[in-house]
Amino acid sequence: MASCFEEDGARSRFEIVDVSAGSVEDSASSLNTKWALAEGLGKLCSSTDAGVWPDGTDIRQYVSTLQVAYDMLHLTEVIEEERILSRYEVGVVTEAAQQIVKTKPQPLLNYWGFSYGTYLGNTFASMFPDRIGRMILDGVVDASDYTASGWRTNLQDNHKVWRLFHQWCFEAGPRCLLNDNSTKEWTQIESKVDKFLNHLKSNPLSIVFRHRIYLLRYFDLEKLMHSASYAPWQVWPLLAQGLAALIQGDTSTFTSLFEFSTWIPRPSNLPPLQLLNPFNNHSAPYPPSYPSGLEASIAILCGDGEDITSESKSDYLSYLDELLDQSQLIGPVWAEITLHCRSWPKSARPSSRNRFTGPFGTKAHERGTGKDDGTGLMLFIGNTADPVTPLQNAYKMAEGHEGKGVGLLVQETPGHCSGVNIPSQCTWGVISRFFNNAELPERDKRCEIDWKPWDMV
């Protein structure tokens, strides 16, 4: 396992100190604290015996997207073998059946990947182009930037998200609680929110609840708004209600809407999604999280990327400035993603043979698209205002996959990925026809949404 801490309580204490330090842009002290914590985690993970075999090999050296792509390939073969053998009674699988398994055509992967899942799908496609069935890459990561440990091509459309938040709030009238009788244009809502955020930078709010003191800082609200940008239909009305309450000095309403310390929406406050989902007729819960997710995620993103441990604190400050130029609101949150990579130990990094760094792309004949049998098809999907995977990434990654059999769908909406959280019958129709009928939309097809977040309030 990838865990570096001997017990979960130690990890929790580490995370508490990290959160308490605030944002990397707050002060030199905040940055120095977070830098030291990242160095400490790197030292801990390089010295732990957990996940280290007797020969000294570290399991973290195998934590990479390349390894997962091989796992996916193996799973397609196992699933196909089980499908064939399931036709026979247990214990009476004949030699002829085994021969069918051995001589069957290589099974293909049908896949729908979101966000990081687009990098995983792109890796699989580039490594095994002849094993692509029908693949959707939705909310597309720039693979070359990711493998460079850059994370510099994510926030280019982030400002569009917040412009739409304020514009749609204005259009919603009194259903959006940031919109009062004095509001004449959407920029007044934007100014009101910006004024409050700037005040919060120097004036954290103390909130007393059940005899405990909680602090709401600017960085906390940054992270809350960042998460809200992923799912406008679920969270934007709640966010507007919470911001309106805070602006009026009403902390009790805000704390009734969002969880303490994490400041994420309380599940009981999230509205049911009014969506058309042609693939599911029931709601399945997300799998539970696991304690060592911190180390696992760091091992994956730092191991997939280039070694940047030679970069100094001064280099990091320049990097922070670059991201702040892209998004004043989310830049500091995004800059923390690669902070741990600057101290990630070489002993925990995968070897070159366990990393895939490209080239990312395929040719039509490699995918077998020329057979016209509905396989070897790829569909890229991008939103016009995605907070972390801008539309330009979808175009860039699609260009690497040449020939017919590659489509690109543009969804006119804010939010991260088309997924299941954005209402568009047009998009769902394209996705359904792609998987069911091997039908690709025309290049650059655009889909509108069917309603806006406040329409159901």
TrEMBL record:
Residues 328-447 form the Peptidase S33 tripeptidyl aminopeptidase-like C-terminal domain. InterPro entries: AB_hydrolase_1 (IPR000073), AB_hydrolase_fold (IPR029058), Pept_S33_TAP-like_C (IPR013595), Serine_prot/Carboxylest_S33 (IPR051601). It comes from the Eukaryota. The keyword Hydrolase applies. One of its GO terms (molecular function) is hydrolase activity. The keyword Hydrolase applies. Keywords: Hydrolase. Residues 86-191 form the AB hydrolase-1 domain. Residues 350-371 are annotated as: Disordered. SUPFAM superfamilies: alpha/beta-Hydrolases. Belongs to the peptidase S33 family. This is Peptidase S33 tripeptidyl aminopeptidase-like C-terminal domain-containing protein.
